[in-house]
């Protein structure tokens, strides 16, 4: 048991590197010097044998499509080899230097980018698996991890938090300076809130349901018997979950004399207040009958257009060739006046069609599967990013993009806009509704392509499940 545990192996280069030849010899006493002498300066030192060392990989193993024309931009499944190489067509070179192969396998379009990538595009991807995971109060109550501009600087308009509450645990009573839109990923929870019109609200939500609390509205969240995990989206890019207004801290920072006067109670009533913030903590099971916790408020109970929740799980998805989608925006969930969202499922081989959004940045969360997107930024930059489950994506307003399913299973992701209506511009529809002569004069496209363009948005484009079919003379669709 006292032996050192072996280091985890993620796949990496080994052997001599940077002038070090591991393993270094074991010594029992100091030897040698920390510094070299002036005899090692250029012009003084002995010239090295430049043929004695090698930075090239012999017989590199390539994956399907890696030798094809770089401008085809085929998806390269790097999982097919032990040691991937940054080669695409006639571009790139092998890599014998410091590496962790798993990063490159997860991000093949950064490691061996399509020949169509150009210029500089701000990073558009952050894996929540790299976010610091903050545990709740002692007792294994839950955790939370976040993405904001501290880790994804381009995400200036929205931030996200992935939070888990253990069975019957609470997210402490609190409020924010930002609006909070939430999607339940797993399990069920009871939410409660009041507003500034003397109205109260309580509801039970499960997987696929949504809530929204406007800035400043105090609320609580409690998991049911099997726990709950949910995604929070805030309308401030620099929002920090650690900066929430907590009821425990408010009470702790207020003089006891003031508490006694405010609540018209003896000061002894406050002797058991928490000494530390609760944040996420274990609670007693709530009654299953929600009516037992529906407090009658002077202004009544929030319902209808004033409701803070929407049972999105009960909405049927719109299904078309290539995938399905359902939309939630203020037309059906009025209280979330600037949150518009689409829950998108893309079939293998298909893609969310090329488009852009006219008035809002796009915040994405990938729930399942794998995909990629090329982001075109004016005037002439483009970069391709890869996404897997648990990743956040961020695409600035008006930047054209698509999202292609690069896996063998369905790709599921959430697309969130800060807009009063979910809308986009379809590139294919734009071309079809523009005079044919104009398109031909600009792009020299053949009549057969233009005549086949749909007048309606298709949302998805179906495709060949073999993403390297073009390399063998096949078709992409």
Automatic annotation (TrEMBL):
Cite the binding residues for Mn(2+) 2: 355, 357, 362, 401
Put simply, this protein is called Cupin type-1 domain-containing protein
Which cofactor is essential here?
A: Mn(2+)
Instruction: List the GO molecular function terms.
Output: metal ion binding
Give the cofactor note: Binds 2 manganese ions per subunit.
Domain spans labelled Cupin type-1: 128-271, 310-451
Pfam families from the UniProt entry: Cupin_1 (PF00190)
Q: Where is the active site?
A: 415
Q: GO BP, one example?
A: oxalate metabolic process
Q: Where does Mn(2+) 1 bind?
A: 174, 176, 180, 219
Alphabetical keyword list: Manganese, Metal-binding
